[in-house]
């Protein structure tokens, strides 16, 4: 049995499946910045921002975080696209069981 589906309909179906599974199109995160709390929620669940700082940011000092030691009243900025790539490439180096 063969079913004919036009390209637009097919794209819509695939986009729906991808969204349902949590995939984000690359162009949606390129150039986007997030804070440590968002980063922890998206990439390090169930760990919180203190855990992320202690076990990822201060240990690896990645270049995708700006103002890593902001001091009182300041905030870190994380560039999401390179952070996502880095997390994928370095996930085995992170001690996920650390407290």
UniProtKB/TrEMBL annotation:
It comes from the Bacteria. This is DUF771 domain-containing protein. It comes from Lactobacillus gigeriorum DSM 23908 = CRBIP 24.85. The lineage of its organism: Bacteria, Bacillati, Bacillota, Bacilli, Lactobacillales.
